[in-house]
Design goal:
With about 260 residues, the protein is α/β, with parallel strands linked by helices. The chain contains 8 helices and 16 strands.
């Protein structure tokens, strides 16, 4: 099964980082967030990726081309130019890097990469969110209901501390998931190739007309994920993820090495 990752947006709310590189290449723990997402999928033996490129896509291409060299010890023959990778982590991944246009919207990017998905069920997510969602359970849920699309519904982490009062005294202060708010789309989709017909073209935002139409047609289901999920839209959220990683307790780190 193939995994699509949308990595072509501008990432304007992370402008301090994304002026020089795409959002997918913003680092957490010295690794691009794209790498973290791919490691999550690979943990579930999903290793065939199709990455939709746009803004500064050449940075992602170069990273993938140089991956083995950048993450391994090397032997270099200066006379012949031959480079031999000696050791290091060399994942058995296949990565298709597809240019999907600089200004293409999310729906348009999905429509452009569907032909690379092998005309079968595929997974899809954004390049800016990590989670500990069980992808095996997600896929099993999708197969049970038999509809065209499944999204992972999450409760976003509270942006501010939550307070309970006793008169004017703060009786409780905590920062925890928003249990009083509704569920939101956390990406981590499972899709059938027929969703292609729900996307008009490059100017279509996946989160609007296609999902609305799928829901209206009874073809959109939600897998409710109650555990960890965190997006990286702002520097504050990048700091949250970095702090979790440095603590050694990053919930999305499901792999061993």
């Amino acid at each position: 099964m193939k995994v699509g990752i949308l990595a072509g947006g501008l990432g304007s709310r992370l402008a301090e980082e994304t002026q020089i590189k795409p959002k997918a290449m913003v680092e957490i723990g010295g690794r691009p967030i794209l790498w973290h997402i791919m490691r999550h999928y690979a943990h579930y033996n999903l290793k065939d990726f199709v990455i939709a490129l746009g803004y500064k896509g050449e940075y992602i291409k170069q990273y993938m081309v140089d991956y083995a060299a950048l993450n391994s010890s090397l032997s270099v023959n200066l006379r012949s130019g031959q480079i031999t990778v000696l050791d290091g982590y060399k994942p058995d991944w296949n990565v298709d890097l597809i240019d999907t246009g600089m200004n293409t919207m999310t729906g348009g990017r999905i429509k452009r990469i569907i032909p690379y998905m092998g005309n079968e069920t595929f997974m899809l997510t954004w390049c800016d969110g990590v989670s500990d969602v069980d992808l095996n359970e997600l896929l099993a849920f999708h197969k049970r209901h038999g509809k065209l699309a499944t999204l992972t519904a999450v409760r976003p982490p509270a942006r501010y501390g939550h307070m309970e009062f006793d008169g004017d005294r703060v009786a409780e202060f905590s920062e925890k998931p928003q249990t009083g708010e509704g569920w939101i789309n956390g990406a981590f989709f499972v899709l059938e190739p027929e969703v292609y017909d729900y996307i008009d073209g490059d100017d279509t935002q996946w989160e609007r007309e296609p999902l609305v139409r799928l829901a209206r047609d009874g073809q959109l289901m939600a897998y409710r994920h109650h555990a960890f999920w965190q997006c990286m839209d702002t520097l504050r959220e990048k700091h949250i993820l970095e702090t979790l990683w440095q603590s050694g307790q990053a919930p999305w780190r499901l792999w061993d090495e």
